[in-house]
Amino acid sequence: DFLFFWGAVFLITTTLVALLKKENKELTPTKEETKGITDTYRLLFSIIKMPAVLTFCLLILTAKVGFSAADAVTGLKLVEEGVPKEHLALLAVPMVPLQIILPLIISKYTAGPQPLNTFYKAMPFRLLLGLEFAFLVWWTPKVKQEGGFPVYYYIVVLLSYALHQITLYSMYVAIMAFNAKVSDPLIGGTYMTLLNTVSNLGGNWPSTVALWLVDPLTVKGCAGAQEQTCGTPVAAEV
């Protein structure tokens, strides 16, 4: 129902834009240096070759390795320990106003000449929250009751998620502000797209690797079968 409703809203609004929005008849000369796909990719390669851009790409591709496991695996581990998925989904609802307000607040600190300072300051706190998430996963089975989990447990989870959102958005808004600041206005679209793509890739590949490593790095034991290691999916099934 949720997906159907918003799918309908999306189709209606985009159709209304297509039918009712009129383009400006006065043509303004474009300042873009690129004229086609070939020129665009040639320009991209010339941007990537710049030493400063190479250094920045290397930094941003590896910056999120430290908290990739906490970001990608915590929710799955909480579900594995018995926390209902629908309860975790409900906890995302109070995060929506926070996610709207945070960029407005953080943008005040990233509007200056050095927007990446906010990125650097938020990183240690996000790393510490990774340890807090690990403690949360360890603590979850200890507070589990017959009827589920107590209210104070969900309050702790909600506060943890809220603090995580603050650090996440501090880094996200800072990197977006930096990308906008350093992009050449003449080729702004191409420049911004390149830097934002690298930023997104820097967040996605560590999470993928973290999820892939969960099984090999998880220590398992078999109750009542001393000779079985349960180290592989086949042994665990047996």
Q: How does the SSE layout of this entry go?
A:
Layout: H1 2-20, H2 37-48, H3 51-62, H4 68-80, H5 85-91, H6 95-110, H7 116-143, H8 151-182, H9 188-217, H10 233-237
Helix pairs in contact: 3-9, 4-7, 4-9, 6-8, 7-8, 8-9
Transmembrane segments: 6-22, 43-67, 87-106, 118-139, 151-175
GO biological process, one term: acetyl-CoA transmembrane transport
GO molecular function: acetyl-CoA transmembrane transporter activity
What does this structure look like?
This protein is mainly α. It has ten helices and no strands. The chain has helices at 2-20, 37-48, 51-62, 68-80, 85-91, 95-110, 116-143, 151-182, 188-217, 233-237. Helix 3 runs parallel beside helix 9. The radius of gyration is 23 Å and the shape is globular. The mean pLDDT is 86. Keywords: Membrane, Transmembrane, Transmembrane helix.
Topology, number of strands? 0
Tell me the series of helices and strands, N- to C-terminal.
HHHHHHHHHH
Low-confidence stretches: none
Question: How many DSSP H or I helices?
Answer: 10
Shape: globular
Strand content: under 5%
Q: Work out the helicity level.
A: over 70%
Main beta sheet? none
Mean pLDDT: 86
Rg over C-alpha atoms, rounded to the nearest angstrom: 23 Å
* Oligomerization: single chain
Helix and strand composition category: mainly alpha
Tell me the span between the first and last alpha carbons: 40 Å
Subcellular location: Membrane
Organism: Eudyptes filholi
GO molecular function: acetyl-CoA transmembrane transporter activity
Protein name: Acetyl-coenzyme A transporter 1
